[in-house]
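Input for the complex:
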Amino acid sequence: MKRSQMEYVAGGGLIDRRSLLVGGIAFLAASSIKPVAASVNEGVKRIGDDFPVWSRTLGRQGTTYGQPSIHEKHLKLKLQLPSAPENSGTTGWLTPLEKLHGIITPNGLHFGSHHFGIPDIDPDKHELLIHGLVEKPLKFTMERLLRYPMISKIRFIECAGNTAFNALSPLSHDGSCQDLHGLISCSEWVGIQASLLLNETGLGKKAKWVIVEGADGGSHSRSIPLSKLLDDAIIAFYQNGERLRAEQGYPMRLLLPGWEGNTSIKYVHRLEVVDAPAYTGHDSGVYTQHLSNGQIEGFSFYMDVKSVITHPSGKQILEEQGFYEITGLAWSGYGKISKVEVSADDGKTWAPAQLHGPIIEKALTRFSIPWHWDGKSTVLLSRATDAHGRMQPGRKEWKQRYASPTFNHYNAIQSWDISSNGEVENVYV
Amino acid sequence: MKRSQMEYVAGGGLIDRRSLLVGGIAFLAASSIKPVAASVNEGVKRIGDDFPVWSRTLGRQGTTYGQPSIHEKHLKLKLQLPSAPENSGTTGWLTPLEKLHGIITPNGLHFGSHHFGIPDIDPDKHELLIHGLVEKPLKFTMERLLRYPMISKIRFIECAGNTAFNALSPLSHDGSCQDLHGLISCSEWVGIQASLLLNETGLGKKAKWVIVEGADGGSHSRSIPLSKLLDDAIIAFYQNGERLRAEQGYPMRLLLPGWEGNTSIKYVHRLEVVDAPAYTGHDSGVYTQHLSNGQIEGFSFYMDVKSVITHPSGKQILEEQGFYEITGLAWSGYGKISKVEVSADDGKTWAPAQLHGPIIEKALTRFSIPWHWDGKSTVLLSRATDAHGRMQPGRKEWKQRYASPTFNHYNAIQSWDISSNGEVENVYV
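Predicted:
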């Protein structure tokens, strides 16, 4: 490869992706990916005992519900706090973002965060009650609910504590992308617009908030502004085509697009329309933030604009210098992602990454940019901007706003240090 | 409900969906869905032994790879030919379309069609060879391939024989939507553009076709026009986020968007660039059609515009007259769906259904329309049109083109008969 054939768009080896289209054979083949030259006869040797067993024998018939390949057993959710006792009820299951691609999270690997464990609810014994400041309190059985018109939306869910719950601890400086950012996932959700059901009960004149309660053992509940429920809230029954998993709220959950995950109440069985927030256990406490000006910030629902490079990322190793694709995910609770910039020289210069469509509001957006690593140590960064002009802050900027015990709503730029031996490591700049 | 409040858009009870937004409480609640009136105190009785066990106890901790709810065991793929011997190698696993929603098919329920069973290929021993009329034959290991830039596309795959393989047989007149149409699914696929790899090898001047071969026991192979591989073909590694399932081609498959499924060669390990088609076993035989004019139609790659109502559909039962949502799926191998019309009076009148976005080319598109069933027998139909103006034919029209042994590429309008007792049944009109 003649390096001069590649058009660089920023420092540290970031390449204009159009180079991929015009570079031809000289570009990638020589740029350290190095496919092996094959002999002309190679394709003809197609029969023989040296062939692998799967090319000589009949395969399996299959099963009624498919599972991942036996060669992908390493692809697993990971407990955020593995030392917590199994009966603590509070668990965080982290999605292995760096091993996934695209924007859809497969149902088996959706992150989970539970305060009271995962119940197995019999749908025939589950009802939704809507009462309080309504014209006519109503109960809905599952059978009745499934008769209502449904909508489909691809949306992310992110735990309020994603990233900083780990990243603020010096112990996890060397975490993987899963370790640091794994409390976010993205699915196609299908369900009834909450506004349609509230239209059924009618609303009292003083109605302003709704206490939403789950049927899990601890009755996880949050006070939600009525305006959100009338805007884009969904009572969801399906996730990526099939009915919700128990981990995700079977038989139904609330989905509040773009808002902190704990407000998308799983196992939802009660909406109480009220005139003021109830300050439930989770309206206070863990889902509030300490600000550096001494204030407590509560009801801070929006998950702000954020991005993370999933490859290369923490604990991965670049085996050699040469071509790599830098790729990652960006999202904003406020709407669509409009731009992701990447730096391969520790923030000195930035280049726009390619955004892979469809670019959907309040969904993950996949980005990528080609990169030629010269084998020297450097730092990779990504910085997302959403359609409202909100841009990811730096870590220092974020820390100026919040006081030290706070770990929710951390959306600062992630820095991945590349050492000259190819090791990738989380670093705080 | 005052029926006069609903605006009908066609015969047989099809409702303008805007009625849902303006109708308020009078509309759905009274329209036979009938949620139960709740007492004002109901929400307060939140503690007690009459509460279900899951609301009084701590739930499970979870697992490293999630599975469907224990209450959804009935959600299964179904063998197309259950009587075929297990070692026949040829299997068709049908997706339960009528039990799914949205457009994404969960990985565990993606349809499968295999001629030589499902191999479990060790990715470390799998290579891709590109040879023939190329400037430089090359072999790619999995490790090398995973270094290349990737793209993500939500695309359907449909078996050439979907629907008519069953629907032409009088034996399956009473099939479910799964039985009749289950050889189609839709996923987010991620992989390398095939054009990028062909750019690596370079192409000889006479290059016009490519023989694509899988590593399965019977070396399933097809001759594919080079132009398709240079257009939108993908060597796919990921499906809905995670690596492909063995059923879907692990460790990699070709994806030819919009073309009959058997051309998206699973377990792909060889691309031989040639100047003319090879007439492989599957270029001929089962993937050709007998035309009524006596000709044989081969290399008929495009899956034409098609739709099916998934609810209400075959073998389902409408328990009572009143409100239902008619919903289904539409797709076209040529591009985007532009319109789906629904008839609730056996084709006398038609109304446009709502298309749920994102509307993506060569992907499934979800449609729906509200419907008030008056309890009388009728026939429901859907008719899709794509962005190229191609419209689904009627059954008679389709049969005029093809001679009787042919079952591939059946895309005629599906008719679901609703009897006055609420039974839904496939019917040929």
